[in-house]
Amino acid sequence: MHLLVPVTAAAALLTGPDFLDVFIPFTFTGYGCAILLQSSKGPDAQPRAFLQDGQLPSRIWQVIGAALCASALSDLFIIAALSTGHEALRPWIISIFSVGNLMLIGLVSLSNHLQSDDAPEEVAPRTFSDAERQVWDRVQNYMLHHRPYLDPDLTLARLSRKLAVPAKTLSTVINKETGENVSRYVNKARIAAAQAALKQGESVTTALLTSGFNTKSNFNREFLRVTGNSPSEWLIATVR
Predict the structure, then answer these.
(1) Any residues with CB less than 8 A from the CB of 198 and at least 6 apart, and which?
(2) CA distance 240 to 235
(3) Which of 90, 176, 189, 201 has the fewest CB atoms found within 10 Å of its own CB?
């Protein structure tokens, strides 16, 4: 279905270029709004994102969606300027929106907006059907005996395939039982594995690599969220 966009644009370029003035902003707006809607549903709505990244993929997609909508808006302003005889405004519109998009991306990347939100999530009512209870039992058994969280490339999609459970069902069941999304649930298990490694005398670097993390920033963020302390602070308190 997505191939219809470039095919339609190519056909319009050959047969009716003026149609592109409407088609391109409409397409950008449609994709931008769809991305914003999907990314607003949280990390479980991106089943192929690495679970250790938490909210980061959702935040990045939100920036992309906003940038697409802004680009569509600039096209509409350009069309309005040309149709009203104000062609001199065209380079100004392009420059302003281009700089604005770059500033948006830069400011967000340098701020805390791309960091995980540590606020507690709303716990869904714990009303389980028999089917959901079976799924939860399967999840617990698989996590205990197979420890999939040790795979740093684990995603919701991959975990759902291993359990033979639809990703949406898996996300719903974990949220109902734990009050957390799949990313936080998996990362909590990783932190428990890291704590065990630290207690055995492993270094912080070894602990993070053997527990399913591959970046120190993700490890430190999740360790602080789960334990309330940095790895070194937690280790000192544990030794005492």
Answers:
(1) 204, 207, 231, 234, 235, 238
(2) 9
(3) 201
pLDDT digits (tens, 9 = 90+) for 208-228: 999 999 888 889 999 999 999
Q: Which amino acid is at 216?
A: K
Please check the confidence at residue 116 and state whether its pLDDT lies above 50.
no
Q: How confident is the model over 135-140, as a mean pLDDT?
A: 93
Distance of CA 25 to the CA centre of its chain: 25
Q: In whole angstroms, how far apart are CA 18 and each of 12, 30, 84, 227?
A: 8, 19, 16, 59
Neighbouring C-beta atoms of residue 182, cutoff 10 Å = 25
Cβ–Cβ under 8 Å, residues 49 and 57:
yes
pTM to 2 decimal places: 0.65
Residue carrying the six token digits 């949280």: 42
DSSP 41: T
**Cβ-contact 90, 128 below 8 angstroms:** no
Q: Check whether 203 has a pLDDT greater than 70.
A: yes
